[in-house]
Amino acid sequence: MLEKQTITCVACPKGCEVTVEHDGDEIIDIMGNACPQGADYAKEEIVAKTRILPTTVRVKNGALPLCPVKTTKQIPLELMDKAMAKIGEKEIEAPLKMGQIIIENLLDTEANVVATRDLPKKINA
I want to staple 28 with a disulfide (CB 3.0 to 4.6 A). Which of 21, 35, 46, 82 is the partner? Predict the structure, then answer.
């Protein structure tokens, strides 16, 4: 069944309103994108939605109790709940370095979870 769907592209800062005409997973036409990235983003949104997952991980003996982390690549949207549960089970010992791998190959997605800031050990006063 032929369907039209309009999405706001987030591939670049322009935020184009992209209209996708599709029949299930088959893309018929893409209109409104100002750059090729917009067409790629729109196809992904129709066929297989993915996102970078930003969150936090618990830190033992850190200057802060949590450290911000993110996936190194987009993962399927339908895996977000399982990914959050897996990350929620993790507690890492301080110190942490930005870019340090916290979890390798999260849920067999080939995406690693990495720290997005340095986090030193707690200073005992």
Answer: 21
